[in-house]
Design a protein that fits this description.
Elements: H1 3-16, H2 18-56, E1 60-64, H3 85-92, E2 97-103, E3 111-116, E4 119-125, H4 133-138, E5 144-147, E6 156-160, H5 161-166, E7 181-187, E8 193-204, E9 210-213, H6 215-225, H7 231-235, E10 239-244, H8 247-259, E11 263-266, H9 267-310, H10 312-320, H11 325-368, H12 382-399, H13 401-408, H14 412-417
């Protein structure tokens, strides 16, 4: 028997028992569907993580004084090593440094208000590039609705859409706030207050009540809070954001800054850790689908055993006509492999279709909630599709191995006498 004869015979035998073939393939369909959905979800989440971090910039570094990984509510007393203005000026001259922004944190207990005409709103100070915070790491950076959303110069501020709405501005008329003077009031827990008059330089798409201030204005507020003239000279900057020319330069700058004794945080490190976690989750999810395929292999083996009982005389005739044990074994293994292949293809198609439906549902929900996440959460890659089909076919071949060996070992005379 040629390989073509074995394949055509296997397909004809599957076609003769359509219902049994469909039931045997059903387990493979469920297992493949499970693998495709779970692994495509992990792949989509990985893509979302990478896109969000890339939108922030993998070429950005955050430098902090030694041991200052946690924000301490503005209390920077007792630092053994500070980031001085001299350090920042020196770093500006380093090769590979594209942009550098020193940051000053306001005390955690500080209460900040903005006042325009008769409207007063509590706000918080948003971070610049040095302190993107969890929201910025998981979502796209706010867009400029009017003016600029870059860190303003001294005497200016960037107002969020949420704060503008709270101040009585309509969404389609926020541009009218540009260049207006807004009174910014800093209140201490003990009751004192200090007012700073700032000019609106931009409106961001941020939905919460946030303002963005220049480092100079934050330093002036912090000096008033601690009743000091210049805290930078004594305590230095809280953080410094450095934007490198490219990712390779960011690596070099990280090593250089660490050598000088500063703490350096890179988004690329976070991306690497996140991808490792997603990889571990992908393996666990794949194992769940693998269990479903293992159960399906039992059904395929049972189907092939029943097929041998029904076709014992046929096997005897093939052997009498000169078919070897290897050819008989191959014929039954090809047949069981086709059961796995059919189930794998159907499971892949169903999993892909379900992923498309879920992506549409998620996109609709995100749009309805005005959340800025974009892209698919269920991504079926070529590697996933090919791997799912090949693995399903492999499971079918393995499941048919013992029944095929049993068919190959049948005695021709006993098979011909079988009723």
């Amino acid at each position: 028997m040629t390989l073509q004869d074995q394949i055509s015979t296997a397909l004809a035998n599957l076609a003769r028992r359509k219902l049994r073939t469909a039931l045997a393939s059903l387990g493979v369909v469920v297992g493949t569907l499970t693998i495709v959905i779970m692994v495509s979800l992990a792949s989509g989440v990985r893509g979302q993580i990478n896109r969000q971090f890339e939108s922030i910039g993998l070429d950005r570094l955050t430098v902090r004084p030694p041991g200052e990984w946690r924000f301490r509510g503005g209390d920077s007393s007792g630092r053994k090593k500070i980031i001085s203005a001299k350090d920042v000026a020196q770093w500006r001259e380093w090769p590979g440094v594209k942009k550098i922004d020193p940051e000053v944190n306001l005390p955690g207990s500080a209460r900040l208000e903005i006042k325009l005409n008769d409207h007063t709103e509590n706000v918080r100070v948003g971070g610049g590039e040095a302190r993107p915070g969890p929201p910025a790491m998981m979502f796209e950076r706010p867009q400029a609705l009017a003016g600029s959303v870059e860190v303003p110069n001294e005497g200016g501020l960037v107002l969020s859409l949420g704060a503008a709405r709270a101040m009585g501005a309509a969404t389609n008329a926020v541009a009218t706030l540009l260049d207006q003077k807004i009174e910014t009031i800093l209140r201490a827990p003990r009751g004192e207050m200090q007012s700073f008059t700032l000019t609106v330089k931009g409106i961001s798409s941020e939905k919460s009540s946030v303002i963005l201030l220049s480092p100079e204005d934050r330093m002036a507020m912090k000096n008033w809070w601690f009743n000091s003239t210049n805290l930078v000279e004594k305590e230095g900057f809280d953080t410094v954001a450095i934007r490198a020319a490219d990712v390779s330069q960011a690596h070099a700058l990280t090593a250089r800054l660490k050598k000088e004794g500063f703490q350096v945080q890179s988004l690329e490190i976070i991306v690497e850790v996140a991808n490792r976690i997603v990889t571990a989750i992908t393996v666990m999810l794949s194992m769940i689908g693998g269990v479903a395929l293992l159960v399906a292999s039992i059904g395929i083996a049972n189907t092939m055993v029943m097929a041998i009982y029904e076709r014992t005389r046929e096997i005897g005739i093939l052997k009498a006509l000169g078919a070897s044990r290897r050819e008989i074994r191959q014929m039954f293994m090809i047949e069981s492999g086709f059961i796995g292949l059919i189930g794998g293809v159907i499971g892949l198609l169903l999993g892909t279709a379900l992923g498309i439906v879920l992506n549409l549902g998620i996109a609709w929900y995100m749009q309805r909630r005005e959340m800025p996440l974009r892209g698919d959460f269920f991504t079926v890659t070529f590697g996933l599709a090919a791997g799912a089909i090949l693995f399903a076919a492999f499971i079918g071949v393995v499941a048919g191995l013992l029944p095929a060996q049993r068919a190959a070992n049948l005695d021709p005379l006993a098979a011909l006498r079988h009723e």
